[in-house]
Amino acid sequence: MTGYRLRRWTDADLPLLIAANAPEMTAHLGGPETDARVRRRHEQYIRGWDAGMPRMFSIRDGAGVGVGGIGWWVSEWDGRACFEAGWNVLPAFQRRGAASAALRLLVEDARAHRDVSGVAAPLLMACPNVDNDASNALCRSVGFARVGVIEEEYRGVDMTLNVWTCPLD
Q1: CA triple 41-45-47, angle to 5 deg
Q2: By three-state DSSP, how is residue 116 classified?
Q3: What stretch of H or E contains 32?
Q4: Domains of the chain
Q5: Could you tell me how far CA 11 lies from the centroid of its own chain?
Q6: SS3 of 164, please?
Q7: DSSP at 52
Q8: What residues does the N-acetyltransferase domain cover (predicted)?
Q9: CA–CA separation, 54 vs 69, rounded Å?
Q10: Could you tell me the end-to-end alpha-carbon distance of the chain, in angstroms, rounded to an integer?
Q11: Phi/psi at 168 (nearest 5 deg)?
């Protein structure tokens, strides 16, 4: 299906975040979060639009159905400010082009709004787990360049992550 679009994250998108918290969706992220943490994350996504960060979106198919979530926020790579992207596409909608369409749209959004945080970041970075073949292939296919590997703790789990970057200028 074509015609994917990004829609600003709203209260109506909480079911997407709950669905994305399933074990099969969080296997590369240290496992599911508590219900309370998912609700806090949802509130952060909504408040981010008032505060300027993070810029979180639901991914919508041509019929307007929510198929996942994607967004970007201020981060750091190699001692410099950058933006970092993260995403998910629910299993029933995977392998239909949603992730690649959404990531391309997100790159455009980051380019268009790079001053929104007061940080003129030159890069958009993504850091999928080295074992997450689908997300690493997505980064490559959308034009990100693999620039390194980092060891980082996330949700209390030590992880090895590939670092992919895309220039925003």
Answers
A1: 110
A2: coil
A3: none
A4: 5-121 (3.40.630.30)
A5: 18
A6: strand
A7: S
A8: 4-164
A9: 13
A10: 30
A11: -105, -5
DSSP alpha helix (H) spans, 6-154: 14-20, 35-51, 98-112, 133-142
The reported pLDDT for the residue numbered 1 is 44
Q: Tell me the β-bridge partners of 6.
A: 59
Place of tokens 């669905």: 19
- Give the closest residue to 88 by CA, choosing from 20, 23, 5, 163: 20
Walk across the sheet containing 5-8 and list its strands. Answer: 5-8, 55-60, 66-77, 80-89, 123-126, 157-167, 145-154
pLDDT at res. 35: 96
Residue 160 to residues 21, 70, 134, 149, 151, Cα–Cα distance (Å): 21, 21, 16, 7, 5
Q: Which helix (H) or strand (E) holds 146?
A: strand 145-154
- Beta-carbon contacts of 57 under 8 Å, excluding residues fewer than 6 positions away, are 6, 7, 8, 9, 69, 70, 71, 102, 106, 109
- Type of residue numbered 70: I
pLDDT along the chain (169 residues), means of 10: 88 97 91 95 92 91 97 91 95 95 97 75 93 97 97 90 95
Q: Are 16 and 58 in contact (CB under 8 A)?
A: yes
Two structure tokens written together for 142: 């959308």
